[in-house]
Write a structure and sequence with these properties.
Radius of gyration: 34 Å
Shape: elongated
Number of helices: 5
Structural class: mainly beta
Distance between the termini: 75 Å
Largest sheet: 8 strands, antiparallel
CATH architecture of the largest domain: Sandwich
Helix content: under 10%
Strand content: over 45%
CATH topology of the largest domain: Immunoglobulin-like
CATH class of the largest domain: Mainly Beta
Strand order of the largest sheet: 6-5-9-10-1-2-3-8
Number of domains: 5
Length: about 525
C-alpha cells in the first residue's frame, strides 16, 4: 500500500513539474518582437462544469458502505468523476474502477477511477479516455454498458472484496419492477420472492431473496416453460442462490437459447421458477412460483364438495384466475386416507341430472388431501378458462380410487348448476386453533390464516367446520368473550367446538358481526356483512 501511495505522490510531483514547464513555454511564446516589446498574458482556458449525472453506490461485501458517483461534463470535453462514500475506515485506500457489463454480470476494467481515501470517503478524477486510450465523452459514459466497483484494497487477496457497487449508464434501473412469490416446496421454511427491475436499456435485473436457506448452500434456479402445475423445460438460468445470504442477482437479457428476453417480456411469459436444493440434487425443489401470465390476479371462485359415500371426506375446490385468463384449480379435502389417490372430474349438467366427464383434474393426494391443476381447456380441447367456470353447467365428482370409480367420496355442483331456486352457494371454512391465542382459518382461499377478518354476503350460506377443543366458537354482536350478545339468526350450532356451524346470512343482518372464543378474548375477528 505504501509503495502504491509513493507512486501516486511521484505522479503528482511529475504533473506539477510539467505544469510549471507548460506555463514557462506559454510565457516565452508570448514575447513580441515589435518596438514596444510588451509581455502578453496567456489567454484563460476555463474548464467549466456542464451537465451532471449522479449514480447510487450500494454496499456489497462490507455492510453499510454506501454513496454516490457523480459524473460532471467539462467544457473541454473531459469528464470529472467524483466518488463519495460513507462509513469507510479512516486511513484505508480503496481502488475504484468502471467495469464493462452490469454489476450482476461483472466484466473487465474499462476505466481506473480515483482511489477513495477512507478518511474523507472521497476521490476525484478527470478523464477524457478509457484505460485503453479510447476517447470518451460525457455522453459516452452516461450511456455506457457498465458498473462501478469500489474495492477493499489493491492487494490481490482483497481486491475482489467489493465494498460498494453500482450500475451506471444504460444499466441504471428505471424504478419499475415486478415481484413474484416463491413458495415453500420440499424443504420446510425456505420461501421468498423474485423481483425483476427494469433497466434503461430494456433489460432487467433479477433479485431472488429466500429465507432459511442453509449456510454455505448453493441453489441453482431456473425459469421453466408453462405453469408450475404443468411443468416444462428450462428457459432461463439464474446465477445460483448463495445459501448464506439467500440472495442471487442476475442480468436478464436473453433466454438460454439466445432469444431476446427483457423486462417487458417477463410479465407476458408463460413460465414458473424452480429453486433446487443443490446442483447434485436438482430433484429436490426448495421453492417454486408461477411468473408472468401465470401469476394469480386475486379473483377466485369457490365451490363446496360435500361428503358422499365415504364418511368425513368433504372440502372445496377453489379456482384462481391467472393473468393469462386461465385458472389454477385447487381441491382441498379433509379426512382422505393416507396413501390414497383420488381421481376427480368436472361432469356436464348438475348432480341431480348427471352427465359425462368434461374436465379431468390431477388426482388428489390422500396424504395431503390436495390437488392442483391448470385449467385452460376441456378434455375435448374446447377452451375453458376462468371466465367460463361461473357459467358452466357442471358438477364435480371425486372418486375413491382409479379402480373404484363407482364410489364417489365427495361431490358438488359448480357454475350455473348451483341451486337457483334459493340463490345460495355454501362456502366452507375449516377452523382450528393455535393454543389460547388464535383461531386458524383454511378454505375459500385462506391457508392457515389466524384471527382474520372475513366478508360474508347476505343470502349466502357458510359452513364453519370447527375443530377447536376447549375453545367454543361464538358469532356475536359484540367483540367479547363469554356467551352473552350472541347472534343466532340463521345460525345453527353457535358456540360449537367440535361440530359444524352453519350460517345463512339474513338480508337484515347488521353490517358488522364478530367471532370470539368463549374463554379467550384474543381469539377473535370480524365478519363484515356485505350485499
Amino acid at each position: 500500500m505504501i509503495e502504491y501511495l509513493d507512486k501516486i505522490n511521484m505522479k503528482i510531483l511529475m504533473n506539477t513539474r510539467f505544469l510549471l514547464l507548460f506555463i514557462s513555454l506559454i510565457s516565452l511564446s508570448a514575447c513580441s518582437d515589435d518596438d514596444d516589446n510588451m509581455m502578453v498574458d496567456p489567454p484563460d482556458i476555463p474548464v467549466t462544469p456542464g451537465r451532471t449525472t449522479v449514480y447510487n453506490l450500494g454496499s456489497l461485501d462490507v455492510p453499510n458502505i454506501t454513496g454516490t458517483a457523480t459524473f460532471i461534463e467539462n467544457s473541454d470535453n473531459t469528464v470529472t468523476i467524483n466518488l463519495n462514500l460513507a462509513n469507510l475506515q479512516a486511513g484505508d485506500q480503496h481502488p475504484a474502477h468502471i467495469h464493462a457489463n452490469t454489476a450482476a454480470e461483472d466484466g473487465p476494467i474499462l476505466l481506473t477511477l480515483g482511489v477513495v481515501d477512507g478518511t474523507i470517503g472521497q476521490s476525484s478524477v478527470t478523464i477524457g479516455a478509457l484505460d485503453d486510450g479510447t476517447v470518451v465523452t460525457y455522453d459516452t459514459l452516461i450511456t455506457l454498458d457498465g458498473a462501478i466497483n469500489v474495492h477493499l484494497d489493491d492487494e490481490e487477496e482483497l481486491f475482489w472484496t467489493i465494498v460498494a457497487q453500482g450500475d451506471i449508464g444504460q444499466n441504471v434501473l428505471t424504478g419499475e419492477s415486478e415481484t413474484f412469490d416463491l413458495k415453500e416446496k420440499m424443504v420446510p421454511g425456505i420461501q421468498g420472492s423474485v423481483t425483476f427491475y427494469e433497466r434503461l436499456n430494456g433489460e432487467a435485473l433479477s433479485v431472488i431473496q429466500l429465507d432459511n436457506t442453509p449456510e454455505n448452500g448453493v441453489h441453482p434456479a431456473h425459469i421453466h416453460n408453462n405453469s408450475a402445475i404443468e411443468g416444462g423445460g428450462i428457459a432461463f438460468s439464474f446465477n445460483p442462490i448463495d445459501g448464506t445470504s439467500g440472495l442471487s442477482r442476475t442480468n436478464v437479457a436473453t433466454l438460454d437459447d439466445g432469444s431476446s428476453f427483457g423486462y417487458d417480456d417477463v410479465s407476458n411469459f408463460d413460465g414458473y421458477i424452480n429453486v433446487h436444493l443443490s446442483v447434485d440434487d436438482l430433484a429436490t425443489i426448495v421453492a417454486q412460483g408461477d411468473i408472468g401470465e401465470n401469476e394469480l390476479t386475486g379473483n377466485t371462485l369457490t365451490y363446496t364438495l360435500n361428503e358422499k359415500a365415504a364418511p368425513g371426506i368433504s372440502g372445496e375446490v377453489v379456482f384462481y384466475e391467472r393473468m393469462s385468463g386461465e385458472a389454477l384449480a385447487k381441491i382441498s379435502l379433509m379426512n382422505t386416507p393416507m396413501g390414497g389417490v383420488h381421481p376427480a372430474h368436472i361432469h356436464n349438467n348438475d348432480v341431480a341430472t348427471g352427465g359425462g366427464i368434461a374436465f379431468s383434474f390431477n388426482p388428489i393426494d390422500g396424504d395431503t388431501g390436495m390437488s392442483y391443476t391448470n385449467v385452460s381447456m376441456l378434455d375435448d380441447g374446447t377452451s375453458f378458462v376462468y371466465e367460463n367456470i361461473d357459467s358452466f353447467m357442471g358438477y364435480i365428482n371425486v372418486h375413491l380410487s382409479v379402480d373404484d370409480l363407482a364410489t364417489i367420496v365427495a361431490q358438488g355442483n359448480i357454475g350455473a348448476s348451483l341451486d337457483d331456486d334459493n340463490g345460495e352457494e355454501s362456502i366452507t371454512y375449516a377452523v382450528s386453533n393455535t393454543g389460547n391465542s388464535a383461531y386458524i382459518f383454511n378454505g375459500n382461499g385462506l391457508d392457515d390464516v389466524t384471527n382474520t377478518d372475513i366478508s360474508l354476503k347476505r343470502g349466502m350460506t357458510y359452513e364453519f367446520v370447527i375443530n377447536t377443543p376447549g375453545h367454543p366458537f361464538y358469532i356475536k354482536t359484540i367483540q367479547s368473550s363469554g356467551t352473552s350478545d350472541t347472534y343466532d339468526v340463521g345460525i345453527t350450532n353457535n358456540g360449537a367446538s367440535g361440530e359444524t356451524i352453519t350460517f345463512t346470512v339474513p338480508d337484515d343482518a347488521p353490517d358488522t358481526l364478530f367471532y370470539n372464543c368463549e374463554f379467550h378474548s384474543v381469539m377473535t375477528g370480524t365478519f363484515n356483512i356485505i350485499d
